[in-house]
Amino acid sequence: MTKEMKVLSGRALGIIKLSLIAFFSLSFTHHAIAKEKQVHPSSIPVEHFFKKPQFTDMVISPDGKHIAAIYEDKDNSSSVAIMDINLTKVLTSINLGEYRRISEIIWPRNDRFIINYAKFVGYLDDNGSQPSYVAYNLNGKRGIQLTDGNRAFYEIVSLLPDKPDKILVQKRNFQDYNDRGSDLGQIPARLFEIDIDTGKEKYTAGQPANVNDIIADTNGVPRMAFGYTEDRNDELGGGSFYAYVKRTPTSDWESIDTEHMRYPDSKKVARVRLLGFNSDNSKAYVASDYNSKLPSVYEVDMKTLDFTHIFTPERATIGAPLYSPNGGLEGLMVSPDFNRILFLSEKSEMRRVFAQLYATFEVTDESSNIQIHSATEDGNQIIFSVSSDRDPGVFYLYNRGLDGSAPGIRLLSESKPEINPNLMASMKPMRFESRDGIELNGYYMLPTYGEAPYPMVQIIHGGPHGPRDFWQWDREAQFLASRGYAVVKVNFRGSGGYGVDFEESGHLEWGGKMINDMTDASMWMVKQGFADKDKMCVYGGSYGGYGTLQSLVREPDLYKCGIGYVGVYSLFEMKKSGDIPKRNEGMRFLDKVLGTDEDLMRKFSPALNVDKIKANLFIAHGSEDERVPMEQYEVLTENLEKIGKPFIPMVKEEGHGYQLLENNVEFYSTMEQFLADNLKK
């Protein structure tokens, strides 16, 4: 540990230095007792894995006197509590109602905070409604609705440091969306200032027309804007792209030539992402894959508009940005295997902070994930968390001593104190070549007890286009490993995170090569000696439910059982029901990724090929699912019943993934018994 920093390291020391609030039921004493009782991973209760975390985020106020914490005290909603910096007093607690998920807390002023929330129906519902913003005083009073996600899409562009009573937002009207029948991302964005005390908004004129995304520099001045338009006659992705920039805060907007920013082998516009400005606003950063398979990062000199290539990731696309306390971009997350931060400068302030934290906790980016959640206006105090594949995470407050005080780190809260990391299994990155020569990446987990080869469960992620699996705490994988199962998760072709070519290689291959990749992952586990070929099961939710049933159709003799959870089972039904085909853009997307060939769609619809399934089945769904409605469950189960194929059914009055703890406990307890009956006898 570094000598100049006083640190409370170790989870047991939390009870000595941390004042606990009964309201949140935080007790490290209880956690220590639980550790003594949990002598074997298989004895950990199911609910310990699937109980909601105590806190999902903690955000410090600009002056460092208060902390806003997001927590989930109810199964189908989240709340925010405002506490003093020592966590000894709760000033207010706010819950916005059922199915309202709070995703972000923003402090524009010391005396007022903003909640970003949206409606989500189901644990696996990662789209939800459009976000809304509401502002409150510290005591929870004078709540003002700043934006309404039911009327328009709003996004905060800047907190306007010189105007503490205002925020700058970009607004896209849904009426434009309805008139154009286009994707939400193509709607023109307009800038407005919103008064955080009254909710009144004022149009800020001057931005270019036909832009969809605008970013401001660290002083709140809009300086870069991109736009994309596409009509029904254009190929999906083959529309027109626009870019504008202001060299100085007082300059006029200039148009930038973008014709070269298309893929060389097609007419499609390359993916372009505005990342932000450096701390002194002399440089801007964008990412694009117009000249590389994975998005490269470019530095833009704001005076000359010269583009300089900074780096191109080798295996995975760039992820979340890392900003300094004043909003300057300093680093980017890249996750080829573990989660690594690529800093944009050797002199980066955040680079020094991370180096101090890695040294203090004696960890690396291959053993822990360190995440900065918030910082005070002067950058002196930082809230961060440390988590890993085995640890759901711990929140800490770091006093850097920039004000002359003694540097130190104080433990704030454990995310899930009922979980003992010492009993959890390790998640290992894997990389192998598919049967047709494609490099595939993923992760596997082996139980902490027993001997290989183990009975195995493959977990298939949802999406499928966009999402991917990461190295992190995984409640489902840990639950299965605690019960003695090896687990494998592969980022099959079509997954996000590995470039456009890799993602689009899954188009028209939902039931073909994507399933081959899953099969190859299972066989990789067998070849490594990790999995028993005669004792394997497959499981997944949403697209993962589809992949599960299609794997059983394609490989009837490979798996003993399958668990389909809120899954798609008929591609024909997918084009008729649910929320995706309701939009013109949604139907164009489905035709692109699923195709229009009815013979292929029939071949790739497991509900229409149930006669090929030999494995035992457990099928679970939510009667209120809007993403994958009950029609999918019904077409599968009715066809199973027609041929007399038995299955274990479960339907709960929930959405796209169960949220209620009692339903999760029943679902995973049923899964535990189902797997034991099929893989351990």
Automatic annotation (TrEMBL):
<protein>
    <submittedName>
        <fullName>S9 family peptidase</fullName>
    </submittedName>
</protein>
<keyword id="KW-0378">Hydrolase</keyword>
<feature type="domain" description="Peptidase S9 prolyl oligopeptidase catalytic">
    <location>
        <begin position="471"/>
        <end position="680"/>
    </location>
</feature>
<dbReference type="Pfam" id="PF00326">
    <property type="entry name" value="Peptidase_S9"/>
</dbReference>
<dbReference type="InterPro" id="IPR001375">
    <property type="entry name" value="Peptidase_S9_cat"/>
</dbReference>
<dbReference type="InterPro" id="IPR002470">
    <property type="entry name" value="Peptidase_S9A"/>
</dbReference>
<dbReference type="InterPro" id="IPR029058">
    <property type="entry name" value="AB_hydrolase_fold"/>
</dbReference>
